[in-house]
Amino acid sequence: MGSSADRYGGVHPMSIPKADLEKVRKTVISVQRYIGSRVIGSERIVRFMFVGLFSDNHMLLEGFPGLAKTMLAKEFAGALGLDFKRIQFTPDMLPSDVTGSLIFNLETRKMEFRKGPVFCNILLADELNRTPPKVQSALLEAMEEKQVSQGGETELLPLPFFAVATQNPIEQEGTFPLAEALLDRFLFRYFMRYPTRDQELDILRSQVVDEEMETKPLGPDEIKRIKDQVPKVFVSEDMISYIVDIIRKTRDNKKIYIGASPRTAAKYLRAVRANALINGRDYVIPEDAKFMSSELLNHRLILNSEAIIEAGSDLPSTVNGIIDEAVSSVRAPQ
What is the mean predicted confidence (pLDDT) over 165-191? Predict the structure, then answer.
């Protein structure tokens, strides 16, 4: 029996140098540890944030207030040396509050575009579901097209651009549920939980003992170089079939009204490539797909009315159970 590389990757024309793979792996671990020392218990979330960033996608965080969602996004931007901005979404906002607006310059007697807070590298869209659909759609263009349209002109966003949106699961009064088209633009929907007792103790201890760790910021150029490596990660025919079969299984369950789309399969493929690269491999293995299946699919499945009623308040667990069933029912490449 051959090695893992022989079975899942082997020799292929776009092989990435081992030194580059090891550099990416060590860099991600370093940033995970750095942020983990400041936001206790965040290492796993940071891994998903890296996958989203390197695969040119975005992330939705859902959790109760006080779980350090804002701090996490800010620390992530700081560790990477990227420009960070935060928008607190409210019901009275206008699209121009996000994208920017045209103003009349009295000196030049011309209309000029004043850039909004979306012009940054890392954007925290805080409580996105509190703003009307018109504002949400303005952010949708920025996320998908990496640009803003205003007054017939198009302004490109700085690259990289990575949006981290949040929503509070317990306060739904006066909110505007995210449209399916907008939800689909987020690669992952990550449910943040309360920390364990040990983690909570570490949170308080970190405020008593000032123990500073350091990390070298990556910067936009290095991030672009890493992102350019993602398409070079090899995916075998067996792995492509494995991903497609998982996606198709989500459409077969009797509890599902609408399953994952072909676009989801394409995002899945790019995400597993990014995860393989982060793990120091230039080939994809089944564990890359299994690792992120729940977070990648949980907001893309629409249950039928009977399943929703049966699930009650425990809807996320029901959806995760369906995802686990789909993954386990597909034979992984050997």
Answer: 83
279: how many CB neighbours lie within 10 A of its CB?
Answer: 17
- The conformational region for residue 190 under phi > 0 = left, psi -120 to 50 = alpha, else beta, is beta
Q: Is residue 11 predicted with pLDDT exceeding 50?
A: no
Please write down the long-range contacts of 96-101, taking CB distance under 8 Å and 24 or more positions apart. 96/150, 97/135, 98/135, 98/138, 98/139, 98/142, 99/138, 99/142, 99/148, 99/150, 100/148, 100/150, 100/155, 101/150
Cα atoms in the Cβ-side hemisphere of radius 13 Å centred on 187: 27
Predicted confidence (pLDDT) per residue in 96-131, tens digit: 999 998 888 888 888 888 899 999 999 999 999 999
Q: How is residue 303 written in tokens?
A: 């249950």
> At which residue do the structure tokens 């019901």 appear?
91
Say what the pLDDT of residue 180 is. 81
- Residue among 92, 95, 91 nearest 174 (CA): 91
Structure tokens at 42: 């965040």
Residues 202 and 103 in one domain: yes
Question: 204 and 242: one domain?
Answer: no
pTM for this predicted structure: 0.90
The CATH code of the domain that includes 120 is: 3.40.50.300
Q: Are 333 and 239 spatial neighbours (Cβ–Cβ below 8 Å)?
A: yes
Residues 175 and 256 in one domain: no
CATH number of the CATH domain containing 315? 1.10.8.80
Same domain, 154 and 175: yes
Last residue of a domain, one of 193, 226, 259: 226
CB 283 within 8 A of CB 238: no
